[in-house]
């Protein structure tokens, strides 16, 4: 059982039955963070070490949200926005579009073959994966 601070917010990290749990308490006060950590641990123990986590979205479903986010970024140049749109266009008809965007996603798509592509799809998918983690859509394992 461990609490640590990232920025102003406390995060928890613990193991139950060999499974690691970590996440944000979304609290800035230590006592409130300890309460959240204790509740999270109790939930994990009640369910036999399995918390009811949000299910990771399929990349195909998540792509619309990601591309909307890309297009709304004023700091990105149009060339970068076109790069991501083209990368998704190329990925949309592959097996990668049906994969869940979870912590194992980067390892799984590396095994997928992409031949003759002008855009490196691993870069597009890793950016989408990072955005999903930042926005809270995916839990880190």
Any chance you could write out the topology, listing elements then pairs?
Blueprint: E1 2-6, E2 9-16, E3 19-24, H1 30-46, H2 59-71, H3 78-91, H4 105-110, H5 121-134
Antiparallel strand pairs: 1-2, 2-3
Helix pairs in contact: 2-3, 2-5
Main attributes of the structure:
about 140 residues; single chain; 2 domains; alpha+beta; 3-stranded antiparallel beta sheet
Unreliable parts:
none
Q: Mean of the pLDDT scores? A: 76
Name the helix and strand elements from N-terminus to C-terminus, one letter apiece: EEEHHHHH
The gross shape turns out to be: elongated
Count of distinct structural domains? 2
The count of β-strands is: 3
Please give the share of residues in helix: 40-55%
**What share of the residues does DSSP label as strand, in percent?**
5-15%
Distance between the termini: 16 Å
Number of DSSP helices? 5
Largest sheet: 3 strands, antiparallel
Strand order of the largest sheet: 1-2-3
Radius of gyration, in angstroms, nearest whole number: 18 Å
Structural category is: alpha+beta
Provide structural commentary.
The chain has 2 domains: 2-46, no CATH class; 59-134, no CATH class. A hairpin with a 2-residue loop joins strand 1 (2-6) and strand 2. The protein has 5 helices and 3 strands. Strands 1-2-3 form a 3-stranded antiparallel sheet, covered by helices on one side. It has helices spanning 30-46, 59-71, 78-91, 105-110, 121-134, and strands spanning 2-6, 9-16, 19-24. The mean pLDDT is 76. The protein has 141 residues and is an alpha+beta fold.
């Amino acid at each position: 059982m461990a609490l640590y601070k990232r920025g102003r917010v406390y995060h928890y990290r613990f193991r139950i039955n060999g499974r690691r749990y970590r996440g944000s308490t979304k609290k800035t006060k230590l006592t409130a963070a300890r309460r959240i950590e204790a509740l999270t641990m109790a939930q994990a123990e009640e369910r036999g070490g399995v918390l009811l986590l949000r299910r990771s979205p399929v990349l195909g479903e998540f792509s619309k949200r990601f591309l909307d986010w890309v297009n709304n970024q004023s700091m990105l140049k149009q060339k970068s926005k076109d790069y991501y749109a083209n990368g998704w266009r190329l990925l949309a008809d592959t097996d990668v579009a049906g994969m869940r965007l979870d912590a194992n996603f980067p390892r799984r798509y590396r095994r997928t073959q992409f031949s003759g592509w002008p855009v490196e799809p691993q870069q597009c998918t890793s950016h989408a994966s990072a955005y999903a983690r930042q926005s809270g859509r995916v839990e880190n394992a």
